[in-house]
Amino acid sequence: MQVRRYKPGEEQELWQLYHDTTHIINGEVYTREQVERWAPHDKDMDEWKERIQKKNPFVAVGDDKIVGFAELEPDGHIDYFYVHHKYQGKGVGSMLYTAIEKEAINQKIPHLHAEVSVPAKEFFLKQGFEILEKKNNIICGTPAINFMMKKQL
Ligand SMILES: CC(C)(COP(=O)(O)OP(=O)(O)OC[C@H]1O[C@@H](n2cnc3c(N)ncnc32)[C@H](O)[C@@H]1OP(=O)(O)O)[C@@H](O)C(=O)NCCC(=O)NCCS
Q1: CA-proximal residue: ligand 1, atom 32 (nearest)
Q2: 14, 46, 55, 91: which has the fewest Cβ within 10 Å?
Q3: Could you tell me the pLDDT band of residue 50, with boundaries at 50, 70 and 90?
Q4: Which range of residues forms the domain containing residue 42?
Q5: Separation of 26 CA from ligand 1 center, angstroms?
Q6: Side by side, which strands form the sheet with 78-83?
Q7: What is the DSSP code (8-state) at residue 73?
Q8: Count of domains in the chain?
Q9: Is 151 a domain residue?
Q10: Residue with the nearest Cα to atom 20 of ligand 1?
Q11: Is residue 19 part of a domain?
Q12: Cβ pair 99, 3 in contact under 8 A
């Protein structure tokens, strides 16, 4: 497996991964309406393409396909961080995280922070993050728990 920056032309594959992981993995914890709001079936692909070009994510590649991606913003915010639903628990997330942390240290970013979903909380704790706050936002009429997490570098 290899971790590198995304290449133009991979946006559609990234959307499929994000969509499927959101519906299948996050869908175990959140409602159907919530995951459909985060990853709608009729997503505007021009908007998604523009987003990915701006975020310039790291991608993990294995078996000739993208098996995960992760986004680091200049202020240390980790935005999307998704592993292919068929490659969960195989170390893909750890490889992506290592690349993100290395890049953050190179850029002299003092700390990383993220709004972490329930299914990802244990993973981020394993990476050395601490929970600052548990949030209970109402999304589509139902509470959707997430955690504000931070790691000092
Ligand atoms: C969170 C996520 C990115 C982790 O990726 P992954 O490739 O499955 O993680 P890894 O296999 O590298 O696991 C690393 C460690 O975290 C632990 N871990 C990962 N998910 C876990 C879970 N749900 N419960 C307990 N431990 C977990 C693993 O056991 C492993 O521990 P080890 O090093 O002692 O073996 C992945 O589960 C995912 O895509 N989740 C859904 C999308 C999501 O919610 N993203 C986060 C948005 S903030």
Answers
A1: 126
A2: 46
A3: very high
A4: 2-109
A5: 12
A6: 2-5, 58-62, 65-72, 78-83
A7: -
A8: 1
A9: no
A10: 123
A11: yes
A12: yes
* Phi, psi (degrees; rounded to nearest 5) at 73: -100, 160
Other C-beta atoms lying within 10 Å of the C-beta of residue 141: 8
Ligand 1 binding pocket, CB closer than 6 Å: 21, 25-26, 81-83, 88-94, 114, 116-117, 119-120, 122-123, 126
Atom of ligand 1 nearest to the CA of 97: 12
Which ligand 1 atom sits closest to the C-alpha of 116?
A: 48
Query: Distance from the CA of 41 to the center of ligand 1, in angstroms?
Result: 25
Name the residue at shortest CA distance from atom 48 of ligand 1: 116
Q: Residues near 69 by Cβ (< 8 Å), separated by ≥ 6? A: 6, 14, 17, 18, 57, 58, 59, 60, 80, 81, 82, 96
Cβ(73)–Cβ(79) under 8 Å?
yes
Looking at this protein, which amino acid is placed at residue 102? K
Query: Does the pTM exceed 0.85?
Result: yes
pLDDT for the residue numbered 30: 96
- Report residue 86 as tokens: 């068929």
Q: Where does the pLDDT of residue 20 fall: very low under 50, low under 70, confident under 90, or very high at 90 and above? A: very high
Indicate which residue's Cα is closest to atom 9 of ligand 1. 93
